[in-house]
Amino acid sequence: MRRLLLALPFALLPLAVAQAADEHDHDHEHGSLGAHEHGVGRLNAALDGQTLELELESPAMNLVGFEHAATSEADKAKVAAARAQLEQPLALFSLPAAAGCKVTRQELESPLFGDKPDDADDHDDDHDEEADKDGHEHHHDHSEIHAHYRFSCATPGALKALDLSKVFSTFPATQKIQVQLIGPSGQQGTEVTAKAAALTL
């Protein structure tokens, strides 16, 4: 299943690139598909049998209001509050009770959570100290929060739609979410906003 989710962005890449070319001719060279853009989050979703996987990636700015390391008590409280919300995925993603979904795996990663190994991975390409220093500085200017969830759903047929309205209301700085989805109705790449936050599985 993990392999299915990892293959998802590649499976939908031609569609997404075609859309990006149509809508954002000027932004195409910036790689609007995976760019770090404030107000924009990304969600990969895959439903395969009874297994639902969701992978949310967002600039920290969208979720906590800043991207620097939390040093003040107020900032630490914001990070803790965001993490607590992300630790309640059944509520955050409004999964219907009728689907009988239970969380079987949950991972939250961000430099703001003190994830040193993840931070180190980001600098594998930096071979000298100077590059590492620059890369490290850049990394903190653009901190991301990644949340990966796996659910086992007793009645997957009850998962007719994925409603992200709670994500928008919980994290109001998030203006849109780019979604790539594999479900019973096939593959789709789309964009949702607070006003149109649901998509059909």
From TrEMBL:
Region (Disordered): 110-143
Keywords: Signal
Chain intervals with Acidic residues compositional bias: 118-132
Signal peptide per UniProt: 1-20
Compositionally biased intervals (Basic and acidic residues): 133-143
Protein's UniProt keywords contain Signal: yes
InterPro entries from the UniProt entry: ZrgA-like
Record's protein name: DUF2796 domain-containing protein
